[in-house]
Amino acid sequence: MENFFRIHKGLQLEGPGNNQSTKRAFKMVRNLTPDSKILDIGCGPGRQTIELAKNARCNITAIDNHQPYLENLKRKAEEEDFSDKITIVNASMLELNLEPKSFDLIWSEGAIYIIGFEKGLREWKKYLKEDGYMVVSELSWLTSERPEEPKKFWESAYAQMKCVNENLKIADACNYSVAGVFILPKSGWDEYYLPLEKRIAMLKTKDTEDETFQKALDTEIEEIELYRKYGDYYGYVFYILRANK
């Protein structure tokens, strides 16, 4: 993680995503009122948090355990005049200490993999009010055919990665109804990868004697090139879920 933070320092996105997709997923959530409460778990620098604040009438609690991300979100919230609408909390998603049944919507873009897709759906559900919504984006296989190169890479990088139907079965087993599912468009990957490529190119000219760091940079480059070659086989998928009674 030290090398990850070192490489990604200053980037506005820490994973694939875009405002259009956040807005699209949010529109599939029903029955929110000004008194509703939203929990953004693993908010990172807060790109999606700000977009939620622009589209929701209610308050948002944003949680992450990397303070520089939270400082970035704080600055954004002040610039957008959302400081009173967004509560920022430094906490780990693995050790949440929240009031049960206190949120109408739990949101997590590109972060549920840290706790695990199934574990996150099960453990976070206790914080949802009756009929509350869970919206997560998760890296998923999109086809049954999996070329050897991406298969090998992701078996090493994220062995828990499943196909969409497998994740939908997990959601059903966790007693959620599916309100919507869609694939993040490739433009959402470009918004993440293009700035990252520029930063990698700059870092490649520094610390050339730090072999471990250079290998970390090479892995990032490999991931980018892999997606551009095999992006039809896997991607981030938004799962818009409603907790059943």
Give me some keywords for this one.
single chain, 245 residues, alpha/beta, 8-stranded mixed β-sheet, globular
Structure description:
- The chain is α/β, with parallel strands linked by helices.
- It has a single domain (14-148, 158-185, 234-243), classed as Vaccinia Virus protein VP39 (Rossmann fold), CATH 3.40.50.
- It contains nine helices and eight strands.
- Strands 1, 2, 3, 4, 5, 6, 7 and 8 form an eight-stranded mixed β-sheet that branches.
- α5 (117-124) links the parallel β4 (103-109) and β5.
- The longest helix has 20 residues, at 211-230.
- At the first level of CATH, the class is Alpha Beta
Write down the domain tally. Answer: 1
Largest sheet: 8 strands, mixed
Helix content: 40-55%
What's the mean pLDDT score? 95
Low-confidence stretches: none
Determine the CATH superfamily. Answer: Vaccinia Virus protein VP39
Please tell me the CATH architecture by its name. 3-Layer(aba) Sandwich
End-to-end gap: 38 Å
Number of beta strands? 8
CATH-derived topology: Rossmann fold
Number of helices: 9
Anisotropy-based shape = globular
Structural class: alpha/beta
Instruction: Work out the strand percent.
Output: 15-25%
